[in-house]
Design brief:
It contains 5 helices and 7 strands, in the order ααβββαβαβββα. The chain is α+β, with helices and mostly antiparallel strands and 199 residues long.
């Protein structure tokens, strides 16, 4: 997951593994979480760093690495940096940039359910393919966007991230692999990943 890869277990584990096993070639494939899980099941990937919102598919195992959360990305011109009292009801007149549902249907459905239960029906004026594109549009003032807190590691100088007090939506990041895959290379990599568990 590109949005989760700017900090934490992914860059640390990859750097450590490449130092310890320089003859092993690592090939990385950017995929949304559900596509990763399917590819691991089909043995097209050895493992993945992905968000898991429900029970894993049969035959897969995982290590929970950390829990990210959803924040509101707003143009810096709003002057909301550091605001502590923001609630969903305060956003009813705002325009929003959304993520295309086809990109991550499980995540989008659960996020929208949480937002609607909080009393906000967001007016989405444009959809983006991913959070990188969304943040570009937010920085340009097209609208606000609900984004993964992991994006704080690479946010634009024109965007601020603000917590919404009545939106408690968590993103559990896991390292996932197929139980049957007991290769030495994967076992070694998994042991390194375990060093960087944050929660």
């Amino acid at each position: 997951m590109e949005s989760a890869s700017w900090m934490g277990a992914f860059p640390k584990a990859v750097q450590t593994y490449r130092t310890k096993s320089p003859r092993v070639v690592l090939e990385f494939v950017p995929l949304f979480s559900q596509l990763q899980l399917s590819a691991i099941q089909d043995e097209q990937l050895d493992a993945g760093f992905c968000y898991v919102f429900e029970n894993l598919p049969r035959g897969l195992s995982s290590i929970r690495l950390r829990t990210d959360r959803v924040l509101l990305a707003v143009p810096r011109s709003y002057g909301w940096k550091g605001r502590k009292d923001l609630r969903l009801a305060d956003l009813k007149h705002e325009a929003f940039v959304g993520i295309q549902r086809s990109s991550a249907p499980l995540y989008i459905d659960r996020l929208m359910k949480s937002i609607l239960l909080g009393g906000l029906s967001p007016r989405i004026v444009q959809e983006a393919i991913d959070e990188t594109t969304m943040l570009c549009l937010v920085s340009a003032g097209v609208g606000l966007g609900f984004v993964n807190s992991a994006n704080e590691a690479r946010k634009s100088q024109f965007v601020d991230f603000v917590a919404v007090q009545d939106l408690a939506f968590h993103l559990p990041l896991h390292f996932v692999w197929k139980k049957e895959n007991t290769t030495v290379t994967l076992t070694h990599f998994r042991a390194i990943v375990e060093r960087y568990v944050e929660n």
